[in-house]
């Protein structure tokens, strides 16, 4: 602030100096040529008052140098051009060579970082220079505070709470959910080094999965399995896999899925009639072991309780269990409203066929 005030005084002195009306020995500059000059139009140049007529005087007009100006004419005042700016007239009146201080509203600052700029009322009745544009104030600490380095592998391993600037501390937790081994908290020292080494995340392992009855694990059995380890499963003969063929140890120590089941096949609970298996009509004793694998559908023929015909009813084999449908032989308990299918045969003929074989 002290420095800014000193600068302002210096600036004021310089501006006042240039407005000195001394024609001959004054510090007034030579009129600058168009390209070097910021002021658009300059009044007529002169060397003495005599050249300027009765209403004008030969006065120093900033970059315009000595010019014929009417000292009583004023520059625009008050000014309301921009809501971010605060204007203060330093001179008593806004007339020729009057000074105007331009501040930014609190919290904003001039592009050069100064608090104030000074504009002078020129001979062309305009304030010198351009209207400044205020920007967000940049506090003395606007340069980001120094920080301690956080290597990429640390950022990728941990969720870090707090910030890594000098004089502050951070806390670590493992992204994988594993335990932190080492100091959970760290402090960024003045020389931008960490007080403690970064911790590590305890490596997670998967526990042996539940055993699969009637199944084999196609892997070396271990007491714990490292991340990304795969276990493949096979079922014993005549058992069918129900679930994933492979499970993988995930980085959080869980398996990608529950182990599968090995499901048993079912005895076809029919002896005296044919059934449909896989779309083919067969005698149960023609099927290997008279059994179907887990998940297989078996279609039975049921006798219609009233009509002399049969209709079909399907049942699925589930892990060794396959029941005959309610309507099947000797179990016609409820009078289910059924439709005899076109493919169904009269029951008599079926019975007859049975006896023939
Ligand atoms: C940083 O400062 C700490 C504590 O003042 C000190 O123990 C450590 O040796 C310094 N490290 C370096 C690289 O200067
Ligand atoms: C492990 O990660 C998997 C997949 O991201 C998720 O489904 C499972 O719930 C996690 N297990 C634990 C114990 O966090
Ligand atoms: C058995 O039938 C069910 C229901 O109609 C069907 O979803 C399943 O795919 C069938 N199974 C086989 C092995 O055809």
UniProtKB/TrEMBL annotation:
Stored SMART domains: CCP
Function recorded in the entry: Binds to various kinds of negatively charged substances such as heparin, phospholipids, and dextran sulfate. May prevent activation of the intrinsic blood coagulation cascade by binding to phospholipids on the surface of damaged cells.
Keyword Protein transport in record: no
Chain ranges of the WAP domain: 21-72
Domain Sushi residue range list: 73-136, 146-203, 204-264
Descriptive protein name: Beta-2-glycoprotein 1
Disulfide bonds: 174-201, 206-249, 235-262
Location(s) in or outside the cell: Secreted
């Amino acid at each position: 602030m002290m420095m800014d005030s000193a600068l302002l005084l210096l600036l004021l002195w310089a501006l006042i100096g240039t407005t000195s009306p001394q024609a001959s020995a004054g510090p007034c500059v030579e009129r600058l040529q168009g390209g070097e000059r910021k002021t658009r139009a300059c009044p007529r140049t002169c060397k003495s008052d005599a050249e300027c007529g009765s209403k004008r005087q030969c006065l120093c007009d900033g970059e315009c140098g000595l010019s014929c100006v009417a000292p009583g004419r004023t520059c625009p005042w008050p000014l309301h051009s921009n809501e971010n700016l605060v204007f203060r007239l330093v001179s008593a009146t806004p007339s020729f060579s009057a000074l105007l201080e331009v501040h930014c509203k609190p919290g904003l600052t001039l592009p050069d970082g100064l608090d104030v700029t000074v504009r002078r009322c020129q001979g062309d009745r305009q304030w010198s220079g351009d209207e400044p544009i205020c920007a967000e104030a940049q506090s003395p600490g606007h340069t980001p505070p120094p920080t301690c380095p956080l290597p990429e592998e640390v950022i990728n391993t941990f969720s870090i709470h707090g910030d890594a600037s000098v004089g502050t501390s951070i806390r670590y937790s493992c992204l994988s959910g594993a335990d932190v081994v080492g100091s959970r908290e760290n402090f960024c020292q003045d020389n931008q080094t960490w007080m403690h080494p970064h911790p590590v995340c305890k490596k997670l392992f998967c526990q042996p999965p539940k055993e699969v009855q009637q199944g084999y694990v196609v892997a070396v059995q271990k007491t714990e399995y490292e991340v990304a380890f795969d276990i493949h499963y096979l079922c014993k003969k005549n058992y069918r896999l129900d679930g994933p063929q492979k499970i993988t140890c995930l980085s959080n120590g869980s398996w990608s899925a529950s182990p599968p089941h090995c499901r048993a096949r079912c005895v076809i609970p029919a002896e005296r009639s044919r059934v449909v298996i896989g779309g083919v009509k067969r005698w149960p004793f023609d099927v290997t072991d008279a059994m179907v694998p887990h998940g297989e559908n078996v279609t039975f023929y049921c006798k219609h309780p009233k009509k002399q015909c049969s209709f079909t009813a399907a049942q699925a084999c589930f892990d060794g269990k396959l029941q005959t449908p309610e309507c099947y032989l000797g179990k016609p308990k409820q009078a289910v409203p059924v439709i005899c299918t076109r493919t169904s045969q009269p029951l008599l003929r079926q019975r007859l066929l049975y006896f023939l074989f």
